[in-house]
């Protein structure tokens, strides 16, 4: 699919129709450029879908963007966070401070926020360093990747479950639990308008990051969760998608099916890669041999860490399906085809 992504400098708050507005909020230093924060009108004050990265530039963009469409951030009724990542949840706490708004998030991601807020900076770096070492990263890579960690978001005060209606007077906005990108990722089905806020679950040109953290966990399978969530959204039919990145697009179901196919093809290629290796590979070695949008040598430390997480998720799904096995009692963990 040809990208129609424009740089943040060309973005403006936009009337998406039907009482919905989009406000681009920058993500400093990220190739994604910005998060699309949506404001939904209601008689009791606007409700935001996501809030953007916690950064002074991002805060000004959100506050002034809302003002430019006739909304005062101090009148925001609530913030529904599609998932706990900092480019979505980061400014929710600041909005609550300004307006007294509630913050709502799925229970599984609230658990993640509590976990992150329980770490001190040193403890989290130590956790990440040990995770990277067990994946087979070299010492210098462990040090580089572990150095990057944003502050955890504010703790929500409302818990969402699959099927819950959002507190949005005059509209029917229903929670659709779509785990995969995070354990508690949600989409929001605007049932009275045939539209769906997809967060990072279904994007028009790119695919969301699906990873296992820690990389060697054997009790979760986020990629399989994600594939099931794609089927769940596709079953809702031909809805207009309002994603958190890129642009609004038609036929969410078709795009969800396309992303599903992409990952199944990636799993086939990964199994072939392990067959060609002829020996068990660590997660880090596997990631280094996979195909990314640039060579492994060109990836930054942070992007290598993300690539390893994605490799781990695909390895875990192949393991669950019985295609590969992990070598028992080996540190770092290694994977090979079943003989």
UniProtKB/TrEMBL annotation:
Q: Which GO terms label this protein's molecular function in UniProt?
A: hydrolase activity
Q: Does the keyword Hydrolase apply?
A: yes
* Pfam families in UniProt: Lactamase_B
Q: Which UniProt keywords apply?
A: Hydrolase
| InterPro entries membership | Metallo-B-lactamas, RibonucZ/Hydroxyglut_hydro, Sec-metab_biosynth-thioest, WH-like_DNA-bd_sf
Gene3D superfamilies to which the protein is assigned, alphabetical: Ribonuclease Z/Hydroxyacylglutathione hydrolase-like (3.60.15.10), Winged helix-like DNA-binding domain superfamily/Winged helix DNA-binding domain (1.10.10.10)
Q: Which residues form the Metallo-beta-lactamase domain?
A: 34-245
Q: Which top-rank group of organisms is this from?
A: Bacteria
Return the protein name. Glyoxylase-like metal-dependent hydrolase (Beta-lactamase superfamily II)
């Amino acid at each position: 699919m040809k990208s129609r992504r424009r740089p943040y400098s060309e973005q403006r708050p936009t009337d998406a129709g039907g009482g919905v507005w989009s406000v681009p909020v920058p993500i400093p230093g990220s190739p994604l450029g910005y998060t699309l924060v949506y404001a939904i009108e209601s008689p009791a004050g606007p409700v935001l879908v996501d809030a953007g990265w916690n950064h002074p530039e991002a805060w000004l963009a959100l506050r002034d963007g809302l003002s430019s469409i006739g909304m005062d951030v101090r009148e925001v009724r609530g913030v529904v966070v599609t998932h706990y990542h900092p480019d979505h949840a980061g400014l929710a706490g600041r909005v609550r401070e300004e307006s007294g708004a509630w913050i709502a998030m799925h229970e599984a991601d609230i658990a993640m926020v509590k976990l992150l807020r329980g770490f001190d900076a040193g403890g989290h770096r130590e956790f990440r360093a040990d995770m990277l070492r067990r994946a087979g990263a070299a010492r210098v890579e462990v040090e580089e990747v572990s150095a990057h960690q944003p502050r955890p978001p504010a703790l929500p005060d409302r818990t969402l479950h699959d099927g819950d209606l959002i507190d949005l007077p005059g509209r029917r906005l229903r929670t659709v639990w779509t785990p995969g990108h995070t354990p508690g990722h949600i989409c929001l089905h605007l049932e009275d308008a045939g539209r769906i806020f997809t967060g990072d679950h279904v994007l028009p040109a790119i695919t969301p990051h699906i990873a296992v953290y820690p990389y060697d966990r054997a009790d979760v399978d986020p990629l399989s969760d994600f594939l099931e969530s794609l089927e769940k959204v596709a079953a809702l039919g031909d809805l207009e998608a309002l994603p958190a990145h890129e642009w609004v697009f038609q036929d969410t179901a078709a795009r969800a099916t396309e992303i599903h196919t992409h990952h199944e093809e990636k799993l086939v290629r990964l199994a072939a890669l392990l067959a060609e290796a002829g020996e068990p590979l660590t997660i880090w070695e596997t990631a280094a041999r996979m195909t990314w949008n640039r060579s492994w040598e060109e990836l930054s430390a942070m992007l290598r860490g993300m690539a390893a997480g994605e490799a781990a998720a695909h390895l875990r799904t192949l393991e669950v399906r019985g295609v590969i096995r992990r070598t028992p009692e080996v540190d770092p963990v290694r994977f090979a085809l079943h003989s």
